[in-house]
Amino acid sequence: MSRYLEKDFLCSYDLSIGFFNNIGVKVKDVQPLRKVFILKTEEGDKILKKVDYDQNKINFIEKSLKYINKTYPNTMRLNKFSNEENYIKWKDEFYIVMDKITGIEASCTNPIDLEICAKSIAKLHKASKGLKNSLEKENSMVIMGEDLVKSYSEAREDLLEIKKFVCSYKYKNEFDSLFIENVDRYVKEIEECERLLSKSNYNNMKDDEDILALCHNDLAHHNFLIENGEVNIIDFDYSSINLRCVDLSDLILKWIKNSAFDIDKAKFIIDSYDEVNPIRKDELELIKILLAFPRDIYSIIRVYYHKEKSWEYESYLNKFKVKLENDIYRKSFLKEYNEKI
Hints:
Blueprint: H1 2-11, H2 17-23, E1 27-33, E2 36-41, E3 44-51, H3 55-68, E4 88-90, E5 93-99, E6 104-105, H4 111-127, H5 131-137, H6 148-167, H7 174-199, H8 202-205, E7 212-215, E8 224-227, E9 230-233, E10 240-243, H9 244-256, H10 263-276, H11 281-292, H12 295-305, H13 313-340
Antiparallel strand pairs: 1-2, 2-3, 3-5, 4-5, 6-8, 7-10, 8-9
Helix pairs in contact: 4-9, 4-10, 6-7, 6-12, 7-11, 9-10, 9-11, 12-13
């Protein structure tokens, strides 16, 4: 399924002679790779990527990484085009080019990869301290992460609204039935997250410059490339400035959800991060709230009913079933969290 979607996306690229003349790079060959193209050039291999955001987000990413690279160089970097911009707008689409970073994707099952990737994120966050103030002094756009109070409230309201619609369906398919069977439980879980959030130190933490960082927000294993023990972090499409523990919770979730929510693995990630960038007690408490939010379940429900992806029905259904099965382990994990972390 994903290969067909990637192929469709790659077909939307404009690889005309006019396009390549505009980017100012002498291209000898072009090779597809997932949703990007590798450009073989006289200056080495480069990555051509079409993005679904505008120049404001591109400039935010470029300036944020430039700030971070002063003390932590292991990230992707945007190239300048012939127009001296870090993007090109071609036929109302935005494209960026980066030097190709060599390396092997990190493995979620390899404890060495786990440790060095957690430490690399700690270094990234540490290097981004003061970024918000720096961007504001330059009068540059600052993209802040989502407010948890608002996003949890919106998620709860969204589930209740979807429930109204689905209950009105004369015919309900299996996905609808599974949704109706489980939705009340997940609404209650979100309400509990809202309650815990209101009792936490979250409102004070949001304005604390010491724990604000550039958050990657998509810390899946394939966004870490490892070569000779060095980790490079790529794909900052979803990046924003937010509490660093929000990013750390994303790393934990993405690396433990397919291993039965292994509490020891989560602790190992936190301990590895803490060696480089010490974590506060209120951050650990917020991480538990973040992991208590039924993110994977809400995500598949939202994507299905709001038609955010071009997947086949069977793909939606299978993903929903798998997520419901895995969620049993998440609940056990949350019970162990206070004891072991």
